[in-house]
Prior knowledge:
Number of helices: 8
Order of helices and strands: HHHEEHHHHEEHE
Number of strands: 5
Amino acid sequence: xxxxxxxxxxxxxxxxxxxxxxxxxxxxxxxxxxxxxxxxxxxxxxxxxxxxxxxxxxxxxxxxxxxxxxxxxxxxxxxxxxxxxxxxxxxxxxxxxxxxxxxxxxxxxxxxxxxxxxxxxxxxxxxxxxxxxxxxxxxxxxxxxxxxxxxxxxxxxxxxxxxxxxxxxxxxxxxxxxxxxxxxxxxxxxxxxxxxx
Length: 197
């Protein structure tokens, strides 16, 4: 099948993928640009998953001060090389993540950071709530697990819905950056300051 060069240009502009990858994606997806975008994203995210274990010891600290001057965030974002740390994509990601922390008020970076004691306390509260609501004892544990998932989505930065696109999780944003930049990227830590809190 002959590939339309305008479609290749559009696909390159939307994904940042190389010409050959764009041609292959369009051929695989019957010339459909939308399907090709998804095809390339999936391919890129699969590549990104392989990079996750690599050491990320370079990076930058990003800051965000809300316009009213009452909320501020410091966030450490790491990558593998100083070269990537200076790219526009990395800088944009760091700024977006700092804004996410300011707006969505996470308490932890990831699920792994949640203290086991705090998690058990939450589960106990959820179990008790389910029983108080008159739920049958045999499904209380399932209800508690569902509420724990919601707890993670509210309190863990990487599990939160992205403020600019609620269909996407913050961890998806990071994975897309890993796929695009070709290096492991890690949100190391953050601190959020708010006047009066």
